[in-house]
């Protein structure tokens, strides 16, 4: 059966619209310079990575062997403790964050979750779903958590386990919370029951290649980390990676075994295609390719910041950030480049596909707007 003419025309129109819309955006942290055509053939199979990627299943139409390699690659990159890590490919950063908080709550049901006001909007929803007690902490202008406020708040509640939801790359300004400073607060108040989840949606694939390396990973003290796959790496389908210390996951696997089922992931059926996408990107790029992408993005961001300042725009960025922050721009420019705007600021995110000529076009549009 084929589509009737009207329906197929509509589909064709949609295809051109999506191509145009993909071409123009500069305000979302989503790479578009990818090609996974070699995988397209696999779309004819009902791939499904049901259940735990590390436990054998009778279902064989899966890509779990590739998924395990993806997890292993990131375990190394994020300095997970040897033989003490576990993870899976998620539907995106939000699911990984939900997973980290879920582990924390199972381990410390009485704990309080602390997170900064610059934390991604999905966290409030996740905390609500998990029915977790939580306290929002002030953020600095950079987007980084206000350590004095965190310290004071934890001090008041020092009799309860502390769960910190740390950001490594906030949505608006790419601010990064320093896990070393968070750990120092735990030590100061002798808090031994603590858990740190690291939300590294964008920067999880960037940080390992930065110098100095931000304090955000397992070696720094994180218990779980979530990364989005469709952001810095790039994927036609949203996806992500969650990693956790295996000893923490075993505690929840046990608690679920108690009610009669052993199930370590959040959803039952899981995407079998996106692990192949991530695997393919890793094989094609290698660590060197990742590092090159990071350097290219940093160069472009430095260029964008400098060119905007030249025309009198108060642009700035955090150290080693690929996000350039600027005051809110005219609606027509916001619309044209799909720029996210909040609290009077907007941003350009110099993903690896962004080149100097994209920046030049943007700066020239701003200039034209200034003279009107
Ligand atoms: C994008 C983002 C998320 C959510 O990730 P999704 O992959 O969109 O679910 C969470 N936190 C931060 C900081 C993000 O930038």
TrEMBL record:
Q: Kind of enzyme, top EC level?
A: lyase
Q: What is its EC number?
A: 4.1.1.22
Matches recorded under InterPro entries: Group_II_Decarboxylase, PyrdxlP-dep_de-COase, PyrdxlP-dep_Trfase, PyrdxlP-dep_Trfase_major, Pyridoxal-P_BS
* An MF annotation (GO) of this entry: pyridoxal phosphate binding
> What is the top-level taxon of the source organism?
Bacteria
Cofactor(s) needed: pyridoxal 5'-phosphate
Annotated positions of the N6-(pyridoxal phosphate)lysine modification:
231
Q: What does the entry give for GO biological process? A: carboxylic acid metabolic process
Provide this UniProt record's keywords sorted from A to Z.
Decarboxylase, Lyase, Pyridoxal phosphate
Give one Pfam hit by family name: Pyridoxal_deC
- List membrane-spanning regions: none
Family membership, please give it: Belongs to the group II decarboxylase family.
- Output this protein's name: Histidine decarboxylase
Q: Which organism is it from?
A: Aliikangiella marina
């Amino acid at each position: 059966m084929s589509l009737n003419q009207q329906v197929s025309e509509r589909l064709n129109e949609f295809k051109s619209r999506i191509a145009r819309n993909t071409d123009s955006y500069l305000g979302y942290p989503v790479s578009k310079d990818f090609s996974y055509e070699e995988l397209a053939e696999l779309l004819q199979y009902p791939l499904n990575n049901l259940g735990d990627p590390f436990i054998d299943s009778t279902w064989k139409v899966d890509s779990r062997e590739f998924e395990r390699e993806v997890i292993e690659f990131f375990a190394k990159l994020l300095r997970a403790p040897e033989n003490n890590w576990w993870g899976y490919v998620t539907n995106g950063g939000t699911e990984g964050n939900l997973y980290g908080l879920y582990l924390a709550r199972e381990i410390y049901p009485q704990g309080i979750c602390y997170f900064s006001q610059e934390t991604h909007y999905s966290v409030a929803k996740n905390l609500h779903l998990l029915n977790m007690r939580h306290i929002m902490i002030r953020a600095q202008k950079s987007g980084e958590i206000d350590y004095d406020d965190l310290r004071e708040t934890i001090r008041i509640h020092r009799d309860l386990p502390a769960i910190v939801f740390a950001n490594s790359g906030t949505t608006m300004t790419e601010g990064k919370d320093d896990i070393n400073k968070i750990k120092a607060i735990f030590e100061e108040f002798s808090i031994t029951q603590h858990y740190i989840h690291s939300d590294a949606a964008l920067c999880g694939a960037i940080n390992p290649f930065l110098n100095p390396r931000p304090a955000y990973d397992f070696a720094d003290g994180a218990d779980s980390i979530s990364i989005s796959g469709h952001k810095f790496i790039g994927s036609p389908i949203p996806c992500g990676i969650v990693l956790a210390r295996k000893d923490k996951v075993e505690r929840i696997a046990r608690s679920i075994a108690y009610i009669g089922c052993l199930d370590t992931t959040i959803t039952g059926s899981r995407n079998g295609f996106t692990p192949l996408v991530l695997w393919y990107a890793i094989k094609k790029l290698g660590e060197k390719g990742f590092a090159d992408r990071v350097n290219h993005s940093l160069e472009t961001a430095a260029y964008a910041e400098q060119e905007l300042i030249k025309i009198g725009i108060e642009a700035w960025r955090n150290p080693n950030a690929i996000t350039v922050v600027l005051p809110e721009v005219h609606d027509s420019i916001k619309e044209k480049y799909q720029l996210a705007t909040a609290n009077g600021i907007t941003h350009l995110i110099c993903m690896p596909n962004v080149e100097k000529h994209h920046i030049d076009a943007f700066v020239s549009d701003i200039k034209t707007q200034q003279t009107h």
